[in-house]
Amino acid sequence: MSSNVVRLAAAVLVAVAPFPVLAQSNGQPVATRELTPAQLFAFADAARDAGNYELAETAYRALATNPDVALRNEARFRLAMMLAYSQSRPRDAEVLLRQILDEQPETARVRLELGRVLADLGEVRAAERELRAAQAAGLPPEVERLVRFFTGRLNQAKPFGVNFQLAFAPDTNINRATQSDTLETIIGDFDLSEDARAQSGIGLSSRLRAFARIPTDEHATLALGFNGSGRFYRESAFNDIIVGGQIGSEIRSGTDYIEVSGVANWRWFGGILYTKSYGVTGRMRHPLNPRTQLNLDAALIYSDDQLNDLRDAEVATASVGLDRSLDARTGIGGSVSASRNFANDEGYATASGDIDFYAYREFGSTTALVRAGYSHLEADRRLFLYPERRKDDRFTTSIAGTFRSFRVGTFAPQVQLS
């Protein structure tokens, strides 16, 4: 039977029971044959092993429409493995693995492979979350050992990569201004024009990340990175752009991950260079148990304000956080952080503290994420014109959803309200 004949059979066979297929060549019947799902799996595997990936994909995708959940997810899994490791198509493999987990969230093997694929894409934190979720679902001892080994190799998984994100960005305060109609000073209250008050708008938010990793020995890697982000609005005076780079070392010590980097950033607001900053950052990831990870972060940054030398400052920050998987579909986490800004003028020098909490839950093909936070900031002294020193309290909440059932290609839409 020709390859075209079998390709036709693969494209139409979706039933569990044997299905008769009539193949034709040059308008003449040449063969009539019944193919069961088992036979089509064998054919697809043979095509894959022979390197005929296009034909194998056609057969696997036909089987992936089977009404039996076990059969269609087995087809998705085999296709995902072929795409990821034989055709260098990890993003397409990720889509298939997530489709399986949408229907069978307790399948630990699939979560393990999803973790590997995400690591190949450079999404290390997301890979670690999937591994914790797999262990929360329960694994045999020999598989747990494999997970521990793989976790130790995560940050060495991909030597280079580029990630790009683009989203709509509605905001009720695009100009970072007050909502008050007046400004209180020691010489009286001043009325603020509409331009000086908070304005709302819808723009585009973008993020770009490029990285490269060069192993220096068995446990250490030289890490290079470039980051860019921006919010763009119809009124270019409100555009906010940040560009930066980093160079440092990533170290693995057992299951611990340690990173120390030198960083530099430039920020433009409204097309004008606003700040230049540089310094050092450090982070540590320490698994407390298979389900829980401790996160430690610290940074010491010098910020050079291009508009006001009195705001030049050394800024020190530190945070402690926990991430925990409750089961294969649910996780929680939180962090406590503190920041000290040593500005040239004590009126701009501040101290602040933050508490943040999040929880996520997968509902079929939808992932819901809820966040809540509180922050408090105080200035060292009042600025000359103002009657009191600055004190800010801020509460934030947000809910977000990723809707994989509305996927376009490899893109799944996300919606966030905050």
TrEMBL record:
Any idea which UniProt keywords this protein has?
Answer: Signal
Q: Which domain of life is it from?
A: Bacteria
| Domain Surface lipoprotein assembly modifier C-terminal: start-end pairs | 162-417
Q: Which residues form the signal peptide?
A: 1-23
Q: Which residues form a coiled coil?
A: none
Question: Sorted alphabetically, which InterPro entries does this protein's record hold?
Answer: Slam_C, TPR-like_helical_dom_sf
**Pfam families for the chain:** SlipAM (PF04575), TPR_19 (PF14559)
Recorded protein name is: DUF560 domain-containing protein
